Amino acid sequence: MTALEPHLPILQVLAPLFGALITAFMSRGIRAWVVASIAAWAAAAIAGLLLIRVIMIQEPISYVMGNWGVPWGIEYRVDMLNGFVVFFVTLVAAVLMPYARRSVAREILPHQQAWFYTMYLLCLTGLLGITVTGDAFNVFVFLEISSLSTYALIALGQNRRALLAAYQYLIVGTIGATFYVIGVGLLFLVTGSLNLHDISGLLVDAYAIYPRPVLTALAFMIAGISLKLALFPLHLWLPNAYAYAPSTAAAFLAGTATKVAVYLLIRILFSVFGLSLVFRGLPIAEVLLILSGAAMVIASIAAVFERNAKKMLAYSSVAQIGYITLGIGFANQSGLTGSIVHLLNHAVTKTTLFMCLGAIAYRAEGMRLSSLAGIGRKMPITSGAFVLAGLSIIGVPGTAGFISKWYLALGAIEDGYWPLVFLIVASSLIAVIYIGRFVEVAYFREPCKEVADAYEPPSSMILPILLLAAATVYFGIDTRASGDIAAAAAAALLGGLAQ
Amino acid sequence: MNGFAAPETLIAAALVIPIAAAALIPAFFRAPNLRETVTLTAAAALAFVVWNLAPYIASGARPTLHVFSVAPSLDLSFTVEPLGMLFALVAGTLWIVNSIYSIGYMRGHNEPRQTSFYVCFAVALSAAMGIAFAGNLFTLFIFYELLTLSTYPLVTHKATPEAMNGGRVYLMLLIGTSMVLLLPAIVITGVLAGTLDFVPGGILDGKTTPLVLSLLLGLFMFGIGKAALMPFHRWLPSAMVAPTPVSALLHAVAVVKAGVFCVLKVVVYVFGIETLVQADASWWLIWIASFTVIAASLVAMRQDNLKARLAYSTVSQLSYIVLGAGLATAASVSGGAMHIAMHAVGKITLFFCAGAIYVAHHKTEVSQLDGIGRLMPVTMGAFLIGALSIIGLPPLGGTWSKLFLMLGALDAGYMIAAVVFMVSSLLNIAYLLPIAARAFFKPLPGAVEGKKVAIAEAPLACQIAITISAAACIVLFFAAQPIADFASSIELGTTHAESAAAPTPTVNGARSNGP
Predict the structure, then answer these.
(1) Residues near A116 by Cβ (< 8 Å), separated by ≥ 6?
(2) Per DSSP, what are the bridge partners of residue B197?
(3) Which residue of B has its CA nearest to A443?
(4) Minimal Cα–Cα distance from A60 to chain B, Å?
(5) Best of B179, B196, B211, B241 to disrupt the A interface by mutation (most A CBs within 10 Å)?
(6) Cβ distance B355 to B382 under 8 Å?
(7) So what's the pLDDT on residue A146?
(8) Cα gap A283→A215, rounded to integer Å
(9) Is it true that the peptide bond before B82 is cis, omega within 30 degrees of 0?
(10) Please, which residues have CB within 8 angstroms of residue A137's CB and are 6 or more apart in sequence?
(11) 10 Å Cβ neighbour count for A31?
């Protein structure tokens, strides 16, 4: 154990990668599932150890690949922020595994099931790689790994529209990744380095000599990452992708993919370019605030008018991402804490919601809201979990969503953005409407023919749902694990920089 | 002063007993008698607990139960003070009466889904206790929202399109005001004052300008939608689609009184009445509350549906208490606190009667009640007593709280408020007494002159509950002193607190800061 301990950062990425290599050679879904489960849980265990270590030693863990020194070799660098992100990403991936077996067996053709688990693990590999690596180009490599596997995951959906959704995302994702790598290239030209930590030190001087290339790099990177994180109005790929992907994939992507992209944005803005460059000279904060506000209101309204339950949740995701980027725009302690804690809170909440819909899809036909009539009586536990997680989306006190909103509201007031407080709560109010629509359909209508024979899914699906539903309440009541780490991460991002 | 348990334990018990009942009730869904036994036992236990807690509070103790911290400055903690104690006593005691009534009503009416009905009811009671004992704004807000959410299934119990529409209005207005106005108000208070705790005398003294204080008060007063201040009162008539026991306990007692309780609590323990008076921040509230009192009474006169009339009457009576808070004097705050109890008992009686009429004769409109007093003498007799208490005539409980509120109005130098109270009493007479008159003096349609009609009352359980609550209206007139003492022992944190603590404030001490 102790011999492996220094190598935790690389093991974090290797665990799912090797899992994927093994599952790629398997033909039977059930065996691939066993391997994938082991890999996902191993990744979660490693992430837990990593996070504990970071908290204990109170400074970033640096791991240099093949002992090539910084900045020539690739460095993996884990601090409070990405330790936190890695932890909840692996946790979501691991908790989904028991759920995945039955759902995948039903939704995906037998000869493709092993492929599904391969893509699932590769996607996890990519997301974890983006998060732990400290190398700008390495980020791009992992970005491509996660994106390519995501396209495949989406395309495995039952509905033929899944192919179109995957194609849409392919185009947009490729543009995003290209933009990102253009930014990296420009940064390399002006600083001669690819190490993120190193670049941040060199950038001040480089900006003095080459201001335009640096700003261009910043612009390309922000635009590229914004496509990946579905910042309004660059979110158009997201609703279809979530709606037509297999249920397990949708739950996984909703909880992790956009969160990791947001992490990358935070890293680039705060750790690499730094507050003084990003927020003093350019109107980036204002742009972020405006787009976030638009996301919170417009995407929420879109969710209200959406007829497909999965798409409704997808629009809700766009709105919730708006909350996260809003806090980034505030760029103060409370706001950034709210953003980081909402990464976790929204991951847990939205994964629960998509898992509930997946469980419903397992027993009933159709994802239109109207075809879910009466589901509350047929599947009371699943529907109950959905409503509970829905309360967290609304931000009812006692749920995780409230904690995020509390910090964001404090952040808004600290910077004197009083009207935005009302925008935050107005968005919550719209969430009441779309969650309320589900409640009315599920509980007050007579069961329709699509759900006539539905009953609770097997316990391998119910238990993970209940676990995450309990987590949405837990993180609303005890914030030592979420809020305190997020606050520490935010303090490090804001304090460790030349103001 | 040796109770049977430490006050901290009693606080926890008051919160846990209803929740435990809610967890236990579904286990007996096949055995309705056992299920109702659970409800009644829990109600009795809760009443026992709150009545045991009351002596501690009366003797000046302020027990605090700190549960844990959710985040920095967000603590889940409970502190009991006289105002909250009074609210808890009212809600806890009436739960027993209401449970007896519910059993008669729900069975007499063969309502579906009775198990979930009793579960939600118990959760709502727990939320009411949480509001009563909340030690800070955050805790208050949690239970405030829990109360809304747990009563939503009760409002929509009938699951008809009408019930769904009522439920929508109910949810959107209550959640809407609390999210959009109350939550920002709490956040702003937290930022300005650096704390969310309830402190006698308030936490905002000297923290901000009078203008901001006024605006903040506005956010709070309209944000506490449960107080039904116009224009956010529409949810209360909408909630009347619920079964009558819900209207009785929740929409005459627990939910609406939670609203006005929050109003008083915020005014006394967050703003502080002295701070409010110095900043002259509440003058607009006096006008809006006055308007609500009169306007809602006028609307009530035009309602033919009995429950709708009672609902608008409640809107009007709630604003008495808001007005008491806005006047911000010792007497008006005590009067407001007393009115929580007095109006609760009177109005629950009226709702019980409305439900009894519905169960026994399926009549919902006032115009259908000709001569019904001959069929239901107990019910309509109780209705008359309840109505007279609401109007505020001796020898009924409602007299005292109106008196105190009037004194408070004079004390604050707002003649207009005193006039409003008087005009409103006249309007009460105009919309409540004709119902009783119609029931007793008009001939019963279809009855043969001179022939005795057979009495057809509601189920026995309903009659028992009605009799108890009507009797309580009378008892409260003669036993008002303990309540008055309780209400006047609310710490106002004012410099002249000692003089203000006297139960009968003098008119001579009138302030001269009228409009």
Answers:
(1) A29, A32, A104, A108, A153, A156, A246, A248, A249
(2) B136
(3) B159
(4) 25
(5) B179
(6) no
(7) 94
(8) 12
(9) no
(10) A181, A184, A188, A194
(11) 15
Task: Kindly state whether A476 is in contact with chain B, defined as any CB-CB distance less than 8 angstroms.
Answer: yes
Q: B458 and B359 in contact (C-beta within 8 Å)?
A: yes
Distance CA B406, CA B415 (A): 9
* Rg of chain B over all Cα atoms, to the nearest angstrom: 22
- Quote the tokens at residue A474: 């837990």
- A410 CB near a chain B CB, below 8 Å? yes
Per-residue model confidence (pLDDT) at position B450: 62
User: What is the full DSSP assignment across A448-464?
Assistant: -GGGTT--PPPHHHHHH
- CB neighbourhood size of B20 (10 A): 16
The pLDDT value given to residue B494: 61
Percent of chain A clearing pLDDT 70 (strictly above): 98
Structure tokens given for A129: 């790689």
Identify which of B47, B54, B49 has the alpha carbon closest to the alpha carbon of residue B1: B54
Task: Confirm or reject contact between A413 and chain B (CB < 8 A).
Answer: yes
Closest CA to A47 of A98, A14, A88: A88
pLDDT band at B514 (very low <50, low <70, confident <90, very high): very low
Angstrom distance (rounded) from CA B424 to CA B427: 5
Which two structure tokens, joined as six digits, stand for A117? 């688990």
Q: Is B513 helix (H, G, I), strand (E, B) or coil?
A: coil
**Residue B145, SS3 per DSSP:** helix
More confident residue, A95 or A211: A95
End-to-end Cα separation, chain B, in angstroms: 47
Query: Which pair of structure tokens corresponds to residue B439?
Result: 């029931």
pLDDT tens, A223-234? 999 999 988 888
Q: Is there a contact between B204 and B271 (Cβ–Cβ < 8 Å)?
A: yes
Q: Where are the alpha helices (DSSP H) in B392-459?
A: 398-412, 415-441
Burial class from Cβ neighbours inside 10 Å (0-12, 13-18, 19+) for residue B262 reads buried
Which pair of tokens denotes residue B80?
Answer: 């009991």
Answer for the pair A425, B184: CB distance below 8 angstroms, yes or no: yes
CA distance A456 to chain B (A): 18
Query: Helix, strand, coil proportions of chain B in percent (round to 5)?
Result: 75, 5, 25
- Contacts of residue A422 in chain B, CB cutoff 8 Å? 180, 184
- Selection from A426, A369, A420, A419 nearest residue A395 by Cα: A426
pLDDT (mean) for A393-418: 88
- Helices (H), ranges, B59-136: 82-108, 114-133
- Give the nearest partner residue to A425 out of B149, B164, B184, using CB atoms: B184
Query: B305 with B243: CB under 8 angstroms?
Result: no
CA atoms lying within 13 Å on the CB side of residue A449:
0
* Side chain identity, residue A272: V
Cβ of B70 and A409 within 8 Å? no
CB pairs under 8 A between A and B: 71
Whether the per-residue pLDDT at B513 is higher than 70: the answer is no
Among B344, B323, B331, B434, smallest CA distance to B389 is for B344
d(CA A55, CA A80): 7
Return the residue matching tokens 């006698």. Answer: B200
Whether A344 has its CB under 8 Å from any CB of chain B: the answer is: no
- Give the residue among A378, A389, A350, A392 at the shortest CA–CA distance from A441: A378
Length of chain B: 515
* Closest residue by Cα to residue B85 from B50, B127, B124, B48: B50
Main-chain phi, psi angles of A445, to 5 degrees: -105, 155
